[in-house]
Specification:
Elements: H1 3-19, H2 23-40, H3 45-61, H4 65-78, H5 83-95, H6 99-112, H7 117-134, H8 150-155, H9 163-170, H10 184-202, H11 206-219, H12 224-236, H13 240-253, H14 258-270, H15 274-287, H16 292-304
Length: 306
């Protein structure tokens, strides 16, 4: 049998073993396919990357997170910004409580394709974990988050007219606001401006904070927390329509952003749009059923809408 056929058969057999829950056997089959590819010497980087990513999935299922991370890293070296190895490595880092590295991978994944809900969910989980672990300065302790080139984003877009593309267009998944990802220098400057804005918020200087957040967003439009921070300032200045707009922008980037739902609900309440406010609070409570502030606001709205 020709090497290409043997490799294809091994990969298919590995997929079947994986689907049946035989992860160790599947990993062995993917490993044999990789050995044949290496021996052949003419394999494409993408073909090898897929096999490493598949074997990583087996290791993750079996709880062998270290080997999962190792294979995902090789897969990403072969084909940078691959969706599956990024997601699997993030999950392995999370399982090992290496939350900073997990956050970076989840955040990178969202940059590559912001319609992947698992990426947004992971960012939210890691944000909470890091906030508990490192306090308000947790962002300053993060490793650099890579800037994803537009070419890498386009690589993972489904072809126009394909079933996946049609499904996405008809779904309620988060929509990418922009495909232009800022450079590392722009991201760093944007974060610096956001921190300066946060300091003005602490001092109650909301107008100055808005200026800083606005400057930050000019450099980095993909940071949902900057929108929710600016929305808070607008709320305090009673600029409710602007607060609603910023919360809506944040939700385009992060469909389960609790602060965005809560602050938009507050703004709707002040504008006496109780129906919209209740809808946002109900959505928030599906995400965080024990959110005390949201429960209290829902009780207030119940009285107001009677």
């Amino acid at each position: 049998m020709a090497p290409a056929s043997r490799i294809s058969n091994l990969r298919q057999a590995g997929n079947e073993q994986f689907r049946s829950g035989q992860y160790a056997q599947a990993a062995t089959l993917y490993g044999r396919a990789l050995e044949l590819l290496e021996a052949a010497g003419d394999a494409s980087a993408e073909e090898k990357s897929v096999l490493y990513s598949n074997r990583a999935a087996c290791y993750l299922k079996d709880g062998n997170c270290s080997l999962c991370i190792k294979d995902c890293s090789v897969a990403l070296d072969l084909v940078p910004f691959g969706i599956k190895p990024l997601l699997r490595r993030a999950a392995a880092y999370e399982a090992l409580e290496r939350y900073q590295l997990a956050y970076v991978d989840y955040k990178t994944l969202v940059q590559v394709d912001c319609t992947i809900q698992a990426g947004h969910d992971g960012v939210n989980r890691m944000t909470k974990a890091l906030l508990e672990k490192d306090g308000l300065q947790w962002r300053q302790k993060l490793p650099p988050i890579p800037a994803v080139p537009v070419s890498a984003q386009k690589r993972w877009e489904p072809p126009l007219g394909s079933n996946e593309a049609i499904a996405r267009s008809n779904s309620n998944e988060p929509v990418c606001v922009t495909k232009q990802v800022p450079s590392a220098a722009a991201t760093e400057q944007a974060n610096k401006l956001k921190v300066e804005g946060n300091e003005f918020v602490k001092k109650g200087n909301y107008k100055k904070a808005i200026e800083k957040y606005t400057e930050s967003l000019k450099l980095h439009k993909l940071e949902s927390t900057t929108y929710t921070n600016r929305a808070l300032c607008y709320l305090n200045l009673k600029q409710y329509k602007e607060a609603i707009q910023d919360c809506s922008e944040a939700l385009k980037l992060d469909a389960k952003n609790v602060k965005a739902f809560y602050r938009r609900a507050q703004a709707y309440k002040e504008l006496k749009d109780y129906k919209s406010s209740v809808a946002d609070i109900n959505t928030l409570l599906k995400i965080e059923p024990k959110n005390n502030a949201a429960q209290k606001l829902r009780q207030e709205l119940s009285k107001l809408s009677k």
